[in-house]
Specification:
With 204 residues, this protein is mainly alpha-helical. The protein has ten helices and five strands. Helix content is 45%, strand content 10%. 19% of the residues are buried.
C-alpha cells in the first residue's frame, strides 16, 4: 500500500519543466533507482518513474553516455539494467577492497560443470556424469549453489524423479549476460582460451 501511495505522489510527467530539464530529471531518476538496487532493474520498473511516453531505452542510452569516463557503467543483464564497475578497474578494487567473498574462484572443472548446466538445463547429476565420464560431487554442486549461480529445476521424469539443476539470474549477472541466448558458442569459448575441461561439454 505504501508503494501505491508513493507512486501516486510522484509527478512522473513533470509537465511544468522545459523539455530539456524534464529529460535530465528522468535520467537522474533512473540513475537513482539503478544506484539503489543491488540487482538488475527491469524496464517496467524504470518506466514507473518517468513520463508515460518517455523511452526508457533512450534515457538509459543518454545516461550511459553521461557516464563515459567514469569508473562504472550501465550493463544490460538478466532482463534489466544495473551499475557495474568497468573491468579496467578490477585490479584496483582487488588491491584496495575486501572482495574475496565476491570472487568466482572456481577451478577449471567447476567452470566446465557450470557451462554444462548452462547449456543443457534442466540437467541431472547423472547426465553430468555422462558428459564428463565421472561422478559430479555434491560438494561441487553445493559450491555453485552457494554462490547463487545454480538452483533446483523441475524433477526429471525418469525413474526416481531426480532433481535437475538450472542457472539463475545471478549466473547471468555474474557473467554479464542479458539472457541465456547470449551464451557463447563453442568456437567463441575456444577463441577465449576456455577449451580445456570445457571442451568436454557437448554444447549441441
Amino acid at each position: 500500500m505504501a508503494k501505491d501511495r508513493s507512486e501516486s505522489e510522484l509527478d512522473r510527467e513533470l509537465a511544468d519543466l522545459p523539455p530539456e530539464l524534464r529529460w535530465r530529471e528522468w535520467m537522474r531518476r533512473i540513475e537513482a533507482v539503478l544506484f539503489a538496487s543491488a540487482t538488475p532493474v527491469p524496464r517496467d520498473d524504470l518506466a514507473s518513474v518517468v513520463g508515460q511516453r518517455a523511452s526508457v531505452d533512450l534515457l538509459v542510452e543518454d545516461l550511459a553516455a553521461d557516464l563515459e569516463g567514469r569508473a562504472f557503467e550501465i550493463a544490460q543483464v538478466a532482463g534489466g539494467w544495473m551499475f557495474r564497475t568497468r573491468a579496467t578497474y578490477a585490479p584496483a578494487i582487488r588491491a584496495a577492497a575486501d572482495v574475496a567473498d565476491q570472487l568466482l574462484d572456481f577451478s577449471e572443472f567447476d567452470v566446465a560443470v557450470l557451462a554444462a548446466i548452462a547449456y543443457h538445463q534442466p540437467i541431472t547429476r547423472d547426465r553430468l556424469k555422462d558428459i564428463f565420464g565421472k561422478e559430479i560431487s555434491r560438494d561441487l554442486i553445493g559450491r555453485l549453489h552457494a554462490r547463487g549461480l545454480i538452483g533446483t529445476g523441475p524433477r526429471s521424469p525418469r525413474r526416481g524423479a531426480p532433481y535437475t539443476f538450472v542457472t539463475t539470474e545471478q549466473f547471468l549477472v555474474a557473467f554479464g549476460l542479458e539472457s541465456l541466448h547470449d551464451l557463447p558458442d563453442r568456437e567463441q569459448l575456444e577463441d577465449a582460451g576456455l577449451d580445456g575441461e570445457a571442451s568436454k561439454v557437448d554444447f549441441w
